[in-house]
Write a structure and sequence with these properties.
Radius of gyration: 28 Å
Strand content: 15-25%
CATH topology of the largest domain: Beta-Lactamase
Mean pLDDT: 75
Order of helices and strands: HHHHEEHEEEEHEEHEEE
Number of strands: 11
Oligomer: single chain
Shape: rod-shaped
Low-confidence stretches: 241-256, 267-291, 294-303
CATH class of the largest domain: Alpha Beta
């Protein structure tokens, strides 16, 4: 067996050591760069998500405040006279865009008095079976419904805000309702148009796994994300993640996805019984909304 001289050994070993050292250094740099890119995307994503969620929170708050102001102007004469009630509702032109699926006045038993969508055609019809009517009657507080299919001809998914109206003796006199079409609502529908990197999107869902806003319109009002399919979806619902929730990196055979969840704020419950900052004072019966979820594909360097 030939023997290598010291000079030969040094000549062979030093380049090998240098090569291994450089490989390790490059691997370390790649790992650090990968982590930095992921963290940067994560921070940026969550900032965008928080802005969107805060915007929805503010819109929900504004809608409820508007409805309460309108409710305070309803008189007993309007409650007793459907024509006066209809004239009042239809005079609120500046607010019709906010409640684009109609405004409704119910009596203290949940029977409709008048509504802007169908005038007096449904006067006397009992709507006490609707959850938003039942909850408002029971709690005598404002309420925000979960999404449901509208009874109007378009059958779009809608949500309804309510505000109780009290008589001089403090008893419940009537209920004012304002309905929002989720397929046209600016503060929810616009989420479906938000694009976050290649393949990224934002969607909104409630604690019952019902999708409220999604780029795929056919999925709205469906509960098609079963337990175990989406880790963050499950964590957000089961653990009520706060606004500082960490992202989850989801690995599938096809790709990786960085998901964030941000709860919307509300009034004294979990989101979508709603909670975090910006709560509306004394509106603990608000019960809609849910979580805004950012779902964004990571760029190529992270694969």
């Amino acid at each position: 067996m030939p023997r290598f001289t010291l000079k030969t050994k040094v000549t062979l070993i030093i380049p090998l050591v240098i090569t291994i050292a450089l490989a390790c250094l490059l691997f370390l740099i790649h790992s650090l760069l990968q982590s930095y890119i992921k963290d940067s995307i994560s921070r940026q994503q969550y900032q965008i998500l928080s802005i969107l969620a805060d915007d929805i929170d503010q819109n929900v708050s504004d809608h409820h405040k508007t409805l309460q102001i309108l409710a305070e102007r309803v008189t007993k004469a309007m409650v007793d006279n459907p024509e006066l009630a209809l004239a009042y509702l239809r005079s609120q032109n500046e607010h019709m865009a906010d409640f684009d699926n109609g405004m409704y006045l119910f009596d203290h038993m949940g029977r409709i008095i008048a509504d802007t969508a169908q005038g007096l055609d449904r006067t006397g019809k009992d709507f006490s079976f609707r959850d938003y009517v039942k909850q408002t009657m029971a709690t005598k507080k404002p309420f925000l419904s979960d999404p449901f299919e509208s009874a109007q001809q378009h059958h779009h998914p809608v949500i309804t805000f309510t505000a109780p109206i009290f008589g001089k003796d403090g008893s419940l006199l009537a209920i004012l309702g304002g309905s929002v079409d989720l397929t046209r609502s600016t503060f929810v529908e616009k989420l479906s148009r938000v694009k976050l990197t290649k393949g990224g999107y934002v969607y909104l869902y409630n604690k019952d796994r019902m999708l409220i806003s999604h780029p795929d319109k056919s999925r709205i009002m469906k509960r098609d994300v079963p337990l175990g399919v989406n880790q963050l979806f499950d964590r957000a619902i089961d653990r009520n993640l706060s606004r500082t929730a960490n992202p989850v990196l989801l690995q599938t055979p096809q790709d990786q996805k960085l998901d964030h969840c941000r709860q919307l704020s509300g009034s004294g419950g979990i989101c979508p019984d709603l909670q975090t900052k910006g709560c509306i004072p004394d509106r603990s019966a608000v019960s809609f909304l849910g979580y805004v979820l950012v779902h964004a594909a990571l760029p190529d360097p992270l694969y």
